[in-house]
Structures are given as C-alpha cells and as structure tokens.
Amino acid sequence: MHCIMVVEDCFAIGGKGLAVVGNQLVQAMPLESSVVELRRPGRQTLSTMVVDSGIFSSPMDGSKTRSFSILLPANLQVDDVPLGSEIWQSQAMS
User: Fold this and answer.
1) Which domains does the chain have, with CATH numbers?
2) Which residues on neighbouring strands pair with residue 3, listed in sequence order?
3) SS3 sequence, 15-82?
4) Quick one: DSSP state of residue 90?
5) Predicted model pTM
6) pLDDT, mean of residues 57-78
C-alpha cells in the first residue's frame, strides 16, 4: 500500500460523485474501479471505490503546478472526507 495523495479540497458533483483534489504523491494510474482507503484525521479508515481520476493544471495562477483529482462514489458526502485525509491505494499496481 502507498499514499496516493493528501486531500486539499473536496466537493460534490451532482449526479456524479464526490471529487477530492490534491497533489499526486506517487504514480498510481489507472485508478478507475480501484479500491482505496481514506485515512481520515481523527476518524476511522474508510474503504471505497474510485469512479474516475485525472490530472489537471491551473494555468490561471502562472505556475506549472499539477493537481490530481479522484472522483469517489455519490454515496459519500463532503463531511465524510475532511481536508488532510490521505488516500491510500489498497491494491498493488500491475
């Protein structure tokens, strides 16, 4: 197991799921349909499935920073994934 990212932002996308955003710590693609663990500060670890993932950059701020986003199932709420939560990949990459 390894930590993929630390959650820096989290928001719901109506009818799609819960998007979590942070900086990618290790190469973990593809993640779609992978099981991940949410290690939440001061809370129990939660296992869930990745619906989708992607990398994007923010050209508006002038930096070359690239953020990583993961879409989690719609049954999760913003309060379920506090900022600072770590997302760990449960399954080994092939």
Assistant:
1) 2-89 (2.40.30.10)
2) 88
3) CCEEEEEECECCCCCCCCCCEEEEECCCCCCEEEECCEEEEEECHHHCCCCEEEEEEECCCCCHHHCC
4) -
5) 0.81
6) 78
Residue 20's nearest CA partner among 89, 76, 91 is 76
Give 44-49's long-range contacts (Cβ < 8 A, gap of 24+).
Answer: 46/80, 47/90, 48/72, 48/73, 48/76, 49/73
Mind listing the pLDDT tens digit for each residue in 20-50?
998 877 665 567 778 999 999 999 999 999 9
CB 4 within 8 A of CB 36: yes
Which of 29-33, 57-61, 83-87 has the highest average model confidence (pLDDT)?
83-87
pLDDT category of residue 85 using cuts at 50, 70 and 90? very high
